Amino acid sequence: MQICRSVADCRAAIAALRAKGKTIGMVPTMGFLHDGHMSLVETAQTHTDAVAVSIFVNPSQFGETADLDAYPRDENRDLEMLENAGVAVVFIPEVETMYPSGDETIVETTRMANMLHGLVRPGHFRGVTTVVARLFNIVQPDVAVFGEKDYQQLQVIKRMVADLHMPLTIIGAPTVREADGLAMSSRNVRLTPEDRTAALILSQSLTAAEATATGATVADLHKVIADTVATEPRATLKGLDIVEAETLNTIDGPLHGPTAIMISVAFGDILLIDQRVVTP
Ligand SMILES: Nc1ncnc2c1ncn2[C@@H]1O[C@H](COP(=O)(O)OP(=O)(O)OP(=O)(O)O)[C@@H](O)[C@H]1O
Ligand SMILES: CC(C)(CO)[C@@H](O)C(=O)[O-]
Ligand code: BAL
């Protein structure tokens, strides 16, 4: 496994694989890896010959520096997991490497970035597309894999790739969960034991909504989720969006096709997200 910290080293490692005729898959991450990330690596490996993983805690997608500062990191453990998984290249840049001129050049999906979860975290998706576009330009993968857990992020990136005619395919991979249903997230380790138990309310509220989806309106599902989350006093519902699955367009009246339910719930200063696509 090649560990690269500069753009030149990363490009050289990828070029060496290309010279052997290998196709390249990519999994962008912010590190502190868990089984959710490793499932994305496996998906990338089934589609391509060699996989590159980036580890970069991207400052431009964090609103509050407290959230950025508290973001968990463990580079040695991450590298061991990636080596064991047979990853070919790991790219671990510094902030100066990714942002040589700060935020002079940005990439933004102007509509999709500034709706739904983008309103809960202003500027977040602009930071995501800006860094992902840079990562794609450095690695130039054939395929990149993103988790469905970050549902809006996946749709935003697909839109960016289509609109900028980027020559790669984006694949979405299902959410990997703990045994009790909590979506795996690097942020879970910051939860107190009480909040960790309370966090089950995310998946439980989605299950309650799914059970009533057929024949339901958006307003009905809003109520089911809000009422379920309200039964957990430690949880604060921050965002709840029920939209058409691919376009993220709003739905009037009853659900009429694949529908994405996206929720964000805060436990103190820790914001957790989950989603489910239901087809009535
Ligand atoms: N439980 C999961 N199942 C599948 N994919 C996941 C899961 N958690 C994260 N991912 C995906 O891994 C990629 C990197 O995500 P990231 O490094 O932000 O991890 P994370 O655990 O989501 O961290 P956090 O939510 O705390 O920011 C993204 O494409 C994300 O959607
Ligand atoms: C895609 C990503 C690595 C960009 O920083 C990040 O948003 C994430 O980990 O989901
Ligand atoms: N997984 C999305 C990255 C973030 O929360 O900033």
TrEMBL record:
Biological process per Gene Ontology, one example term: pantothenate biosynthetic process
Active site: 37 (proton donor)
Pfam families reported in the protein's UniProt record: Pantoate_ligase
Annotated EC: 6.3.2.1
Residues the record lists as binding (R)-pantoate: 61, 153
Catalytic activity: (R)-pantoate + beta-alanine + ATP = (R)-pantothenate + AMP + diphosphate + H(+)
GO CC term (a single one): cytosol
Molecular-function GO terms, alphabetical: ATP binding; pantoate-beta-alanine ligase activity
Pathway: Cofactor biosynthesis; (R)-pantothenate biosynthesis; (R)-pantothenate from (R)-pantoate and beta-alanine: step 1/1
Annotated function: Catalyzes the condensation of pantoate with beta-alanine in an ATP-dependent reaction via a pantoyl-adenylate intermediate.
Annotated protein name in UniProt: Pantothenate synthetase
Organism: Shimia isoporae
Gene that encodes the chain: panC
